[in-house]
Amino acid sequence: MKILKYIPRIVFIFAVLAASSCKDNLTEINENPNGVDPNSANPNLLLPTVMTGVGNQYLKLGYGRIAGVIQHTQEDAWKDGFNDYDWSEEDDEWRAWYGFLRNNNLLYNRSVEMGYTFHEAIALTMKAFIFGTIADLWGDAPYTNALKGDQGEMLPAFDSQEVIYKGIIEDLKKASSLFANADVSTYATGYDVYYNGDRAKWQKFANSLLLRYYMRISAKLPDIAKAGIEQIYTSGIYLKDAAEDATMDYIGSAPGDSWPTAVAFDVSESNWRRRRPAATLLNTMVAGKDPRLKVWFQPVHVRWVSDPTLKTGMDEFIRKDGVIQNGVKSLTEQELRAEISAGHKFTRHFNPALYKPTHADLFNGPINTGEYVGIPAGMIDPTYYNENPTTGQQVQNQHASQLSYTYQGSKGGLLKARLASASETSFIFAEAALKGWAVGGAEAHYNNGIKQSLQTWGVADQYDAYLKNVTYKGTLAQIIEQKWIAGWTMSTEAWFDYRRTGLPALVLGAAPKSRALPLRFIYSNNELNNNGESVKSAIEKLEETIFSGPRKKNSQWSKPWLVQGTGKPW
């Protein structure tokens, strides 16, 4: 179904290159020798350009630094932007999303001109997804007058978040209506890299995005949200099975079309190695005996053993099958992998009565003896965690878990960019039911959300056993916690849920510069320099908080409209 690998390479030669700012003139496409004449572009050739760009960028956020914000993962080196939220102006991110919009605008215009209703509906869906992401990440943004550089609109005003979300909802309604009867005969097989021309699944995707955005605005515009969610539930047209999730496979032939931590393009394996499970997520999963734990993470390579008979505070050297390996403090990842695969077990012992932290200012214990060990959020220097003998990235921390070897791969299997899921949809309905809205029972939806996520990760056979450990007790905290877990690799949604609910109740470490989780991205320098009046107007509408710091209103800790007046998340 997800057939990106079959797309003819010629498609990517015709990709419309993204320009540098939302005010750039669309006619610059004509100056690109590798581009396509917008007056003759075939919508089929434009589909993968838009869809792969969006899929890649969304995954890079949800598997990348937003996973650090929401404490799915932490990095144990080069961590400032990942663990500590030390962010700067988002020029590259801003350019990327508006670049996708320009390409998508061409797709939409050509689809309308040629009467390709199926492609038109896809373009409307993608427009909503992209603008929704922009509004989610920054707040106010160019919307109504964006993408009109060829009409002389060089300095577009910023629309409010409220206007953008309402526009997104209308576009998705129209897209859903078009999908219901769209002519798919104009679709060329192989170019739709999400659903391969399946209009029924596209309609479910569009309606599920509607659910996402109705719930997003539920605290600010509850009447609109309630009516919209109830209407979609009544229609029965939304993602219901993990097989219907909106996902994108990877080709795996180059860094740009491969999973972000693929070791095929990173000989040192550092991108994969320095990214670790966060203790917040891992400990929650361990406590619930979550079957996804073993799919996503590895046991520690060298496990600590409490040994009251030990004559010193802790072993200097590791033990192989119980025997001290004199002179060997650690092994490389490759050596440990080979030895463990051959059946050997590695440990280090410590005497809890005699143990004293090696660097109490960076790790003050206690030693974690668990089989699975996550990195606590926001450590000053996470390489010291759990008495790692090879700090500073000499070798990997053998006393903390790593991501599954799956995430060293370039493509295939579980390595998919996921834009929306049946699980997310079920948890939205569970939350809506808890509000008293007419969408069925909260417990049934909660259970479905768990089941669909387990299906996604290949452990559905363990659903009954797991559900006994997380039986529904009727709280929003429980719904959001399970949704947060299920959001693995698409943690942007978990971030936006946290922002509007304050859940899960995440606790910061010592390193972040401000004592709260960030709420938004910082407006780009490019826009400030070139469209300053419009940006300044948008910044003025942000709510400065006690955490905003020297950037004042244009800070990652300032509140956009969506959470102003809600008392959330803090």
TrEMBL record:
<keyword id="KW-0732">Signal</keyword>
<dbReference type="InterPro" id="IPR041662">
    <property type="entry name" value="SusD-like_2"/>
</dbReference>
<feature type="signal peptide">
    <location>
        <begin position="1"/>
        <end position="18"/>
    </location>
</feature>
<dbReference type="InterPro" id="IPR011990">
    <property type="entry name" value="TPR-like_helical_dom_sf"/>
</dbReference>
<dbReference type="Pfam" id="PF12771">
    <property type="entry name" value="SusD-like_2"/>
</dbReference>
<keyword id="KW-0449">Lipoprotein</keyword>
<protein>
    <submittedName>
        <fullName>SusD/RagB family nutrient-binding outer membrane lipoprotein</fullName>
    </submittedName>
</protein>
